[in-house]
Write a structure and sequence with these properties.
The complex is a heterodimer of chains A (169) and B (583). Chain A has 169 residues and is an alpha+beta fold. Chain A folds into 2 domains: 72 residues; 77 residues, Glutaredoxin (3-Layer(aba) Sandwich). Helices cover 47% and strands 11% of the residues of chain A. Chain A has a 4-stranded mixed beta sheet, with helices on one face. Chain A is elongated and about 60 Å long. The two termini of chain A are 38 Å apart. By secondary structure, chain B is of the alpha/beta class. Chain B has a 5-stranded mixed beta sheet. A 4-stranded parallel beta sheet of chain B has the order 12-11-14-17, with helices on both faces. A 4-stranded mixed beta sheet of chain B has the order 13-20-19-18. In chain B, helix 9 packs across helix 11 and helix 9 packs across helix 15. The two termini of chain B are 40 Å apart. The chains are: A alpha+beta (169), B alpha/beta (583). At the A-B interface, helix 4 and helix 5 of A face strand 8 of B.
């Protein structure tokens, strides 16, 4: 990364540009409090809520504004499963691969989703809308195979229903 | 008065100060509890679990490094159960570690290997999944091999606590945990200052210097190359440790002989460059003292410190001496004036520098040290690499005769020798500067108050009514104390010496791993190495840089006078702020 940023003010100005005004304000507030470091997780939550994920640039900006070494910031962000370091799609499609769903044909359903959307598991469609993920048992084995699109649950899904399901989104 | 606590360890009554750890209390009765992540100079981590003991009343083992003594405590440091648990712990570490000890740089000198042996790991009972990571060797100085990492966090702690850099942190969790810089970037693209203290602190080989040995062998075997080597002041004080000498045994003569046996055509002394640095730097100091600009002058020999300044304190760049490091001065003079004198194309000269330092590997590829597309230094070997080469060649170091450095860049004064330890540059500069300012010979040329053995020294030195406020720091955390005062203008210093590594070059990131009986960052070890240098200095006829005859001749023939245009071109450099900026 070759960036010509020299003065401390420039570094800070650049960091502020990277983040939403409200978040910068929140960080400023935190800075005035005791143990300001301890607000790191709250800040990470706010940034992820706003931008969907924590990019390298955003993490670096958080580090500068909170005066926390960048290695610590990325260390914390990567530790918690809740934080995403890569862009996330708008809608996550979870295909249940628990034993019951698997036996009832979840794999073929997954294959169809991949075919229709033209992406592999854990990849995002080019329009940023969908990402297909395999998941472990969703606890609805009687309705296998189960697919969860966003917050909606679909039961006894067959490959030929995939297109119709996707049209709803 | 400190409260005393009475406890029993292995049935023996022990009385210690309160707040003592069980591990230290046990040492008082001659029991050394096995340990791995614990290091006396670093904070307590308690992550490796090797130092477990049994304490009465607890139905689980406690880590002795992090457990404080309590009145009436009954501790058992050894039992079949404890021994088995310790062995299992180490075995589990090994299970998640490459099984390639013979191929490893640290074979025979690895704490994990030694521990496994001493705890009696003789067969491998566990066989499970092993973490897989690529070796990160895209940096020019420090190589990171995460598969060998056992997550003891010694590197993280030394980087954060001793160096104040905080470039390393654990990322991800559980089985996937990996120690790396921000965003898993390589060392060059992170805020790493390339000091190499992570290498020294690592119990295995998860961090290593980038090897230059192969290219050096190759150059030696190339009949068209004139291969010249120079050795830093601190090498002579530490190299003996690699061959079984007591730490602090000066081995200058044997080292020179060994280098000649290895096939180097000429052996120069970086001390020559150190003397040269002092002459140029004291000239710079005197100029700045009279113009009152950019004071304090801050020394620039330590490339780790220079990297730190560019990444963390770029505001201080105008304060840094523009002198190239002694190594780069010797290299620059060799590839310009000396090459011309012996009628050799600089491209046919291969310049090798033996350094206690890993950051020097970074320094040599900086554009400022490349003249006419030709790097002035071609390779840097650490003390460890040189020791390996000598052993690999089959040279019996202890049986070697002494020999002298080659002329003309082999002569040096005692002022050059002490460059290798903290306060040395300061002392050598003071010897030279005061002589120039007062225009008389000094009665006392030893400035013992600047020998910053504890890491940080500030003093006021007065000769003939001239007062200089000086500060010496080694280890970046110590340096920060001074630098913050410079920035806040809380105190007006005139001259500041900063060495990135604890103890100065004698504790450099390329020095031998501590011999048996010493710890990492061991002040006792540093003191021994430093004393070797002070002894060499004391025994020299000439101890002030200005008395170096070869240098006098060089100014007459080539450089004209300190600070001249040609001296600036050959001997000076410049710095620039860098990104990412450290916090």
């Amino acid at each position: 990364m070759k960036i010509n940023i020299t003065s401390k003010d420039e570094v800070l100005a650049n960091a502020k540009k990277e983040l939403d005004e409200d978040i910068v304000k929140f960080i400023d507030e935190c800075g005035k409090k005791d143990k300001s470091d301890s607000f790191l997780i709250s800040v990470l939550h706010k940034v992820q809520d706003k931008y969907g994920y924590l990019s390298k640039e955003k993490l670096q900006a958080i580090a500068y504004l909170m005066k926390i070494p960048a290695a610590k910031v990325s260390g914390v962000a990567s530790f918690y499963h809740y934080f995403h370091l890569k862009p996330k799609a708008d809608i996550i499609i979870n295909i249940c691969m628990g034993t019951a769903c698997f036996v009832k044909g979840a794999e073929a359903v997954g294959r169809k989703f991949k075919e229709v959307l033209g992406v592999d598991y854990n990849q995002i469609t080019s329009d940023g809308k969908f990402m297909i993920m395999e998941t472990r048992c969703l606890g609805m084995c009687a309705m296998a195979p189960v697919v969860k699109i966003g917050d909606d649950i679909y039961s006894k899904v067959t490959p030929d229903q995939v297109k119709i399901l996707l049209e709803k989104y | 008065m400190t409260k005393k606590v009475t406890l029993t360890i292995d049935g023996k009554k022990v009385i210690v100060d309160e707040n003592t750890t069980v591990m230290h209390a046990a040492e008082q009765i001659g029991v050394r509890i096995p340990r791995l992540c614990y290091q006396p100079q670093l904070s307590i981590e308690g992550s490796c679990r090797v130092c477990i003991v049994q304490v009465k009343g607890y139905n689980y083992f406690l880590t002795s490094c992090s457990t404080k003594v309590e009145e009436g405590m009954e501790v058992q440091t050894n039992s079949p159960e404890i021994r088995k648990a310790r062995r299992d712990i180490v075995e589990l570490l090994l299970d998640n570690h490459p099984k390639e000890c013979q191929l490893c740089e640290r074979d025979g000198n690895c704490e994990l290997q030694n521990l496994a042996y001493s705890l009696g790991v003789r067969e491998r009972l566990f066989e499970g999944q092993r973490k897989r990571h690529k070796i990160e060797d895209s940096s020019v100085s420090v190589v990171r091999d995460a598969e060998k990492c056992i997550l003891c966090s010694r590197c993280i702690r030394v980087c954060k606590e001793v160096q104040g850099v905080y470039n390393l942190s654990q990322h991800y969790r559980g089985f996937n945990t990996v120690v790396c810089p921000f965003d898993e970037s390589n060392m060059d693209d992170s805020v790493c200052i390339q000091c190499g203290q992570c290498i020294n602190a690592c119990p295995t080989a998860a961090f290593l210097e980038k090897r230059h040995t192969e290219q050096v062998w190759e150059a030696i075997n190339d009949p068209n190359k004139l291969v010249i080597v120079q050795t830093a002041p601190s090498i002579r004080a530490a190299i003996g440790e690699g061959f079984g000498y007591e730490p602090g045994t000066p081995c200058t003569g044997k080292m020179v002989t060994a280098l000649k046996k290895l096939g180097f055509d000429l052996v120069f002394d970086t001390n020559f460059g150190a003397d040269m640095t002092i002459i140029e730097e004291s000239n710079e100091l005197i100029r700045r003292l009279s113009s009152k600009e950019n004071l304090p002058l801050i020394t620039s020999c330590s490339p780790g410190w220079i990297n730190f300044m560019e990444k963390f304190y770029p505001e201080l760049i105008p304060h840094a001496s523009t002198c190239r490091s002694p190594m780069s001065m010797v290299s620059a003079l060799t590839k310009t004036h000396f090459a011309k004198k012996i009628n050799k194309d600089p491209k046919d000269i291969f310049m090798v520098a033996i350094m206690p330092c890993v950051a020097k590997k970074y320094e040599i590829q900086r554009p400022e040290h490349i003249i006419d597309q030709n790097p002035i230094t071609d390779a840097v070997l650490t003390t460890r690499e040189l020791i390996w080469m000598i052993k690999s060649y089959g040279i019996e170091f202890k049986q070697l005769e002494d020999s002298d450095f080659d002329d003309p860049l082999g002569e040096s004064t005692g002022g050059g020798d002490i460059f290798g330890t903290t306060g040395g540059v300061m002392e050598a500069a003071l010897r030279c500067a005061f002589e120039k300012i007062t225009k008389r010979k000094l009665d006392q040329i030893e400035f013992k108050t600047v020998r910053a053995v504890e890491g940080l020294r500030e003093s006021e030195i007065e000769i003939d009514g001239i007062k200089l406020n000086v500060a010496v720091a080694n280890g970046i955390t110590n340096a920060k104390t001074i630098l913050d005062k410079v920035i806040s203008k809380e105190k007006q210093y005139h001259l500041v010496e900063i060495m990135a590594c604890p103890g100065g070059c004698i504790g450099g990131g390329g020095q031998p791993y501590p011999p048996k009986g010493y710890e990492i960052l061991d002040k006792k070890l540093f003191a021994k190495r430093a004393n070797a240098l002070y002894a060499i200095d004391k025994n020299k006829k000439c101890r002030i840089a200005t008395e170096n005859e070869s240098i006098k001749k060089l100014y007459k023939e080539f450089l004209k006078e300190p600070g001249s245009d040609i001296a600036h071109k050959i001997l000076h450099t410049h710095y620039h702020p860098r990104y990412p900026r450290g916090i």
